[in-house]
Request: fold
Amino acid sequence: MPYDPGVPRAGVAGTELYYERAGAGEPLLLIQGMSGTRLSWGEPFLAPLRQSFDCISFDNRGIGLSAPVTDPFAIADLAADSLALLDALEVERAHVLGISMGGMVAQELALAEPERVRSLALGCTYCGGPGSQLMDPAEFAPLAEAFASRDRDRVLRASWEVNLSPGFRADESRFAEFAEMAAAAPVSQAILGLQLQAIYAHDTNARLPGLEIPTLVVHGTVDSVLPVANGRQIASLIRDSRLEIFDEVGHMFWWEQPERSAELVREHALAAA
Reply:
């Protein structure tokens, strides 16, 4: 869906972010990853969380129903957007969940203003620096070629194959729901390029040991976007963090196992509260 100036948004850091808010309880800020929108969480994951939390999901700058952008930005800028959104909604403190690029944003947010974060959950993400691993170029090539083709069906299929595990994809009937979600908020190559630049420059490696926020780290063992070694590394850097490994699960762990994922986030946040 294209940008609609009539849709309500919060003005933050020189742009406008589209957000949705639903549920009851303490605030839970959900930060999506590269190319992801608020639709990418899926109802099977969000619905149980709304029973325990005031869930705030949004589209990152330049994505979905948020205002378009053309200038480069850093992960720290996206973190500033998230904090400004909390300010606009008059939320003093929130539980924070970030996945993939959103997990990088959540790291920067927690490091910048730890007093704003009640608990932190980091899924399928990356901290940069020594020992971290981005996507294997051989794995990325089919996705890049699909986007270059500008063939929507090819892009949807390539995204499905890179984000979900072989076991999950074995049930072909699951593709329709994924494709509907992805097609509902298509992302331009230009904004993907800006997001990639921000991801490549991300590095919180040396700073994470100073984080003193209750932290949950979740990662699937067959994540081909950001290998599971990244999750283990992040958990090793953050003192007293909890690491949950999903065996034979791909990058979008919350899509493959929504009930288990939601319960882990709920349990972790409520224990911290």
Notes: The longest strand covers residues 117-123.
